[in-house]
Write a structure and sequence with these properties.
Length: 175
Amino acid sequence: MFDEKQIEVMIDRETLEKRIAELGAEISRDYAGKELYMICVLKGGAMFMTELSKSITVPVLWDFMVLSSYGNDLISSGEVSIKKNLDGSIDGKHVLIVEDIVDTGRTLCFLSEYLMKKGAASVKIATMLDKPSRRVVPVKVDYTGFSIEDEFVVGYGLDYAQRYRNLPYIGYVKM
Ligand code: IMP
Ligand code: MG
């Protein structure tokens, strides 16, 4: 655990929520006349999922998945497994994966392939943050809130050892 004094604001709440609203408007235009099946990757994607949904105007369904995550480490284990699967069928659905951050790309590479195999009509990705310099596996991200440098960030759903998810801004940790 670190002291909250070690957390510096990287993206403040107003900037973040304004950008998320823009993404919601863009998604609404792109999916005009369609129903959107939003799949949140828990737990980190939860705050982005709710904020983004508020500015989407097409009909929306919500589902949630839990995938293997970092645990308490600052680096990815490289393996992805499903801990909680979908509640509904996505056969023929237009799926939007809602993720907090794309880092190595392993999680989303695995998940988008998995969802296509489940019969989705389309699978797109919306991420609040992207760290493109960290990519190990290529992923096509359709909607990105902010691209950031390779800093470990917390807040707005993102954790360090399960803490700081509730911070209403994106902060980085001064090590
Ligand atoms: P990937 O499979 O390496 O792209 O890992 C993505 C996941 O790692 C994200 O969904 C986060 O849960 C976690 N993660 C990556 N970078 C950070 C970070 O800076 N802070 C907190 N969690 C992170
Ligand atoms: Mg995540």
